Amino acid sequence: MRRRVGVLFLVVIGVLMLAFLARGFLTKPREFGEAGALRPKVITTFLPIYVFAVNVAGEEADVLNFLPSGVGPHEYSFAPADLKKIAGASLVFANGLGLENWLTEIVKKSDFQGKIIEVGRGLAPNDADPHVWLDPIRAEEMVKNIAAAYRAADPAESTSYDQNAAAYIGKLEALHQSYNESLAKLPDKRFIAFHSAFGYLAERYGLEQVAVIEEFPGKEPTSKYLADLVDLIKREKIKVLFSEPQFSAKIVETVARETGALVYELDTMEVGELAPDSYEKIMEKNLKTLVRAFSPR
């Protein structure tokens, strides 16, 4: 009886091991272009790039984000432990346009052997404002750039990447239409931003970013600059100031008290929840804020 139980136990173990093998749990991680193994590792730099990359990847790649939760790409300073994060990655997707200058040093000091794709390259006239993802039409181009990189590295799954990209671009197109329809009818769309982040959004939908409170990210404006800004707001009768959730609203509120302008919060998506639908949710929330801010009182 004991021998029979032992044989049965070995048979069960054997069946379980075969099942694991069949599902690929014991195979090596697959390189791009190699079918039949585990999914490749892809690294993104921050929230919107993660959302685009994970939607295009679908079930074909594991997408991990590099920056810690709550840390934006402007102020990031990497630690030695970060060098391990990109080890073994096949692709790193970055925004580019001067936003992730810290990435060059990390790659230089790490064992990274993959490719870095700057998905925002070519979408802006210069590197002065890297926030191209806040324009849904430019976001569509970023998604296309990501899909092209996946196809080039992993031609065996090209059809999947193309289908996933097309489905997500459909969502971005619907978002663009919502912005167009909601903002076109509003009369006065002038505003002061916390920092220079909304230029592409303004250009796309006929808004006017008159000035910014913080000329350089992370550097407080001088007293003279703020005084001149207050004079400008009063002279031009600008009624809308935009703060950002990742920065203190203290300076914005001070300017509001001096001018009588109202403060609203717009999210640049530099930090936030890493979820496949985060981009659409934040953009929809921003649209509601824009409509509320610019609607006649």
Secondary structure topology:
Blueprint: H1 2-23, E1 41-44, H2 47-57, E2 62-65, E3 91-94, H3 102-109, E4 115-118, H4 136-153, H5 158-183, E5 190-195, H6 199-205, E6 208-214, H7 223-236, E7 240-243, H8 250-259, E8 262-265, H9 278-294
Parallel strand pairs: 1-2, 1-3, 3-4, 5-6, 5-7, 7-8
State the gist of this model:
The protein has 297 residues and is of the alpha/beta class. It contains nine helices and eight strands. The protein folds into two domains: 140 residues, Nitrogenase molybdenum iron protein domain (Rossmann fold, 3-Layer(aba) Sandwich), CATH 3.40.50; 82 residues, Rossmann fold, CATH 3.40.50.1980.
Structural features, described:
With 297 residues, the chain is an alpha/beta fold. The chain has 9 helices and 8 strands. Helix 2 packs across helix 5 and helix 4 packs antiparallel against helix 5. A 4-stranded parallel beta sheet has the order 2-1-3-4, with helices on one face.
Task: Please state the average pLDDT score.
Answer: 87
- Biggest pleated sheet: 4 strands, parallel
Question: Secondary-structure element order, as H and E?
Answer: HEHEEHEHHEHEHEHEH
Q: Determine the CATH topology of the largest domain.
A: Rossmann fold
Question: Helix count?
Answer: 9
Instruction: Provide the spatial order of strands within the biggest beta sheet.
Output: 2-1-3-4
Helix coverage percent: 40-55%
Number of domains in the coordinates? Answer: 2
Strand segment count? 8
Q: How far apart are the termini? A: 87 Å
Low-confidence runs of at least 5 consecutive residues: 15-37
Class from helix and strand fractions:
alpha/beta
- Alpha-carbon Rg, integer: 24 Å
Please indicate the percent range of residues in DSSP E strands (runs of 2 or more).
Answer: 5-15%
Give the second-level CATH assignment, the architecture of the largest domain: 3-Layer(aba) Sandwich
Name of the CATH homologous superfamily of the largest domain:
Nitrogenase molybdenum iron protein domain
* CATH C-level category of the largest domain: Alpha Beta
Outline:
globular
